[in-house]
TrEMBL record:
Pathway recorded for this protein: Purine metabolism; urate degradation; (S)-allantoin from urate: step 1/3
Family classification: Belongs to the uricase family.
Physiological role: Catalyzes the oxidation of uric acid to 5-hydroxyisourate, which is further processed to form (S)-allantoin.
One GO cellular component term: peroxisome
The enzyme's E.C. designation: 1.7.3.3
Protein name: Uricase
Primary location recorded for the protein, binned into one broad class: other
InterPro entries found in the cross-reference section: Uricase
Species per Swiss-Prot/TrEMBL record: Poecile atricapillus (Black-capped chickadee)
Residues given in the record as O2 binding sites: 48, 242
Any one Gene Ontology molecular-function term assigned to this protein's record: urate oxidase activity
Record's keyword annotation contains Membrane: no
Protein location: Peroxisome
Binding-site residues for 5-hydroxyisourate, renumbered to this chain: 48-49, 150, 167, 216, 242
């Protein structure tokens, strides 16, 4: 049981310069006894209002040095404060506020919300067990208008999809990774590096791009690049929900439409997912 959607803004002042973190937190506990379920005995139950207030107090006292560290702080508090807590799981996601810049000069106290992917993390711990930390990015919308195709696929009597060697590749990406044994990592730096890997693997070199023969291959390229460059990541999951575009037929309007006007196919849409990890991690 626990408390969901604990939303708040943490404002930190450094003189005239302000820093903000707006987050949403979900915190859940499992107790050593199910007596509140079986017997209606609430003597071990930590009220969800207490859970909410604890999250707010930790934000006030400790700040939010990183999403992952804040999730770890919440887990540590409940595990060390209440002996009846057997398991804690904390989810934290961030509202993507970025500092506003005017003529290249960062503003000291103004921000803009940029929907370029939502950062999130999870931390969970069992009593006498290791602390496990996951992090990720979701709702990241990506598109490239060429250097993508889909050919040589299996066909039967139900297949109507034509082969394409030049199409738009567009989708909404979800990516989640595990750090394995949690150490003193620079979580902010690692998250930014992984995001850069995602964008690079999706797009390819800026002057020419890189051909994608399928959504599946693009997913794998993202995972392989992250694992090759970020040693702290042990397992990475990527889900790419696809958005397809159809070229509008303008012959009746007396126009030739050379893939200049397209409409998105709202539903159904495709999706591909893959989880990839280091061999040593799966052997443990």
């Amino acid at each position: 049981y626990g408390k969901n959607t604990i939303k708040f803004l943490r404002l930190h002042r450094e003189g005239k310069k302000h820093l903000v973190k707006e987050v949403e937190v979900c915190a859940h506990l499992r107790l050593t006894s199910p007596q509140e379920y079986l017997e209606g005995n609430n003597s071990l139950v930590i009220p969800t209002d207490t859970i909410k207030n604890t999250v707010l107090v930790l934000a006030k006292k400790n700040g939010i040095p990183s999403l992952e560290q804040f999730a770890i702080d919440i887990c540590n508090h409940f595990m060390t404060t209440f002996c009846q807590v057997a398991y804690v799981k904390t989810y934290v996601q961030e509202v993507p506020w970025q500092r506003l810049c005017e003529d290249g000069v960062p503003h000291i106290h103004s921000f803009i919300c940029v929907p370029d992917g939502i950062r999130f993390c999870e931390a969970e711990q069992c009593r006498n067990g290791p602390l496990v930390v996951f992090a990720g990015i979701k709702d990241l919308k990506l598109m490239k208008t060429t250097q993508s195709g889909f050919e040589g696929f299996c066909k039967d009597g139900h297949t109507t999809l034509p082969e394409r060697h030049d199409r738009i590749l567009c989708g909404e990406l979800f990516c989640k990774w595990s750090y394995g044994e949690c150490k003193d990592f620079d979580f902010d730096c690692i998250w930014k590096k992984i995001r850069e890997c995602i964008l690079e693997a999706f797009a390819g070199p800026p002057d020419c791009g890189e051909y994608s023969p399928s959504y599946q291959k693009t997913v794998n390229c993202i995972q392989m690049l992250v694992l090759s460059r970020v040693s702290q990541v042990q397992v990475i999951e990527v889900v790419l929900n696809n958005t397809f575009y159809n070229v509008v037929d303008m012959k009746n309007l007396g126009l030739t439409n050379d893939k200049e006007v397209l409409v998105p196919v709202e539903a159904p849409y495709g999706s591909c997912a893959c989880t990839l990890g280091r061999k040593k991690f799966f052997e443990v």
